[in-house]
Design goal:
The complex is a heterodimer of chains A (57) and B (392). By secondary structure, chain A is mainly β. Chain A contains no helices and 3 strands. Helices cover 0% and strands 18% of the residues of chain A. Chain B contains 15 helices and 12 strands. The longest helix of chain B is centred in the middle third of the chain and has 31 residues. The N and C termini of chain B lie far apart (55 Å). The chains are: A mainly beta (57), B alpha+beta (392).
Chain lengths: 57, 392
């Protein structure tokens, strides 16, 4: 999949944005990692809400 | 507390959760509700006919509605609170902050509580909501009365008075919401954002909007007073940390959160109420029982934090719960961080040599405050003259 198809996901509780292109290197998530590949028990690094609280931005 | 992170306190008649790990779990677990109506000893609700605007808005509040409705409200309101929106708030409140420092001027010494902390938060929220300067007084009275009415240490008569004092503000805001609904031109204030939030068939009604404004006041007006004093007190009582922040401004947000973690300005914990029988932390919690979430203990839990009593602005704060966690994560977090950041930036720019006057800044607390270890005097020596002399 091309770089341009990278998405952003936003936590509807706290507004934290996960940018697939940037990843979260400080949390061990490499740039380019798709949100869908996160495990089901992954939680928002800002507020601790579950993965299900994220929506495509 | 370390040995028994979940323990029943006989005198309080409630469970006390004290470890960082389990406080976090309690706040994330939807089976624990913040709505005191789930408490086995909750007083009966007021009859509908006796409810005033304060009561109705309280029924619509983020702590009172069902988890599904709560999620809906957060989803609809989040765009107005997100980090990127808050960065635009910078333009709107910077002049208020600069005004505070202009009033301080070249003083040798000033009280950071009265000159900065007591001055800024409610006015900042008034600006954010879209209240024009000429109506600020109404809003600030509203803000004070709403916060006061939520106090647990009021007599019934005092509570009724505070609730009554809030009604003028509710009427004012209802008119302001009606105004935003009628406007045919775009408006970028918070009320306008709430009026237009959501899809066409899923809008916030007036009560929802008032409940969100009330939450913002509760989360961002009174508590932010403590943010300013505790951040300054923390940094100035650790001059090496203050100098480090000047050398590395990128540490600003970390410094604010660390000062709050270590300073622990909250006097009371938060509460949750079991909506069903729950096995938790090796204990059996019964439906209807209250849980005291001991955040002050969690913020200094040695199992989570190395050297928890130390102020270290370089500390890795990943997983902190300074602004809570889970569905009720502090809604005003980015607002107060933005406000605190601008204050700190301006403070450092003007008073790089500042120190606490006479060692502790003549530190004084208001022991009567309902939920905060409220600092009401923090005298700062600016040493501004020394800076100017050094520069010359």
């Amino acid at each position: 999949m091309s770089e341009t198809a990278m998405k952003q996901w936003i936590c509807i509780i706290c507004g934290f944005v996960y940018d697939e292109a940037a990843g979260l290197p400080e949390h061990g998530i490499a740039p380019g990692t798709r949100f869908e590949t996160f495990p089901d028990d992954w939680t928002c690094p800002e507020c601790g809400s579950p993965k299900s609280s994220f929506e495509e931005a | 507390m370390l040995e028994y992170p979940v323990a029943f306190h006989r005198e309080l008649g409630m469970w006390v959760v004290s470890s960082h790990e389990l406080c976090l779990e309690t706040m994330k677990d939807l089976r624990f509700s913040p709505n005191f109506r789930h408490w086995e000893y909750a007083p009966p609700p007021k009859p509908e006919a006796e409810k005033d605007d304060f009561d109705i808005v309280t029924d619509h509040s983020l702590f009172a509605v069902s988890p599904a409705q709560h999620l809906r409200l957060r989803k609809l309101t989040m765009p107005a609170f997100a980090r990127h929106v808050m960065s635009r708030i910078d333009d709107r409140i910077r002049d208020l902050i600069v005004d505070c420092f202009e009033t301080i001027g070249p003083a040798d010494e000033f009280d950071a509580y009265s000159a900065i902390a007591a001055n800024l938060p409610a006015r900042s929220i008034a600006r954010m909501v879209g209240v024009p300067p000429e109506d600020e007084k109404i809003f600030i009275k509203f803000s004070n009365s709403v916060v006061k009415a939520s106090r647990i240490n009021l007599t019934e008569r005092e509570r009724k008075q505070a609730q009554h004092d809030s009604l003028e503000g509710f009427a004012y805001l209802k008119n302001a919401i009606a105004d935003r609904r009628q406007r045919t031109y775009p408006s970028d204030d918070f009320l306008a954002a709430l009026v237009t939030a959501g899809e066409q068939d899923d809008r916030l009604d007036d009560w929802d909007i008032l409940a969100v404004v009330m939450a913002l006041i509760a989360a961002g007006a009174d508590t932010a007073v403590d943010l300013h004093t505790y951040v300054l007190q923390g940094l100035l009582s650790h001059p090496e940390q203050y100098r480090m922040l000047q050398a590395k401004p990128a540490l600003q947000e970390n410094a604010i959160i660390e000062a709050l973690r270590r300073g622990s300005p909250g006097k009371l914990p938060i509460f949750r109420f079991a909506t069903q029988d729950i096995e938790f932390g090796g204990q059996q919690i019964r439906k209807g029982q209250a849980i005291l979430v001991n955040l002050a203990a969690a913020w200094r839990d040695p199992q989570k934090w190395n050297d928890p009593d130390a102020l270290d602005i370089t500390r890795n704060l990943e997983g902190h719960i300074v602004f809570g966690a889970g569905p009720h994560f502090c809604i005003g977090t980015y607002l107060v961080r933005t406000q605190g950041g601008i204050m700190l930036e301006e403070f450092i720019r003007r008073f790089p040599q500042a120190e606490l006057a006479r060692g502790d800044g003549d530190l004084e607390y208001d022991y009567e405050h309902h939920n905060a270890r409220r600092i009401v005097r923090l005298n700062v020596r600016t040493n501004a003259g020394a800076s100017i002399r050094n520069a010359a």
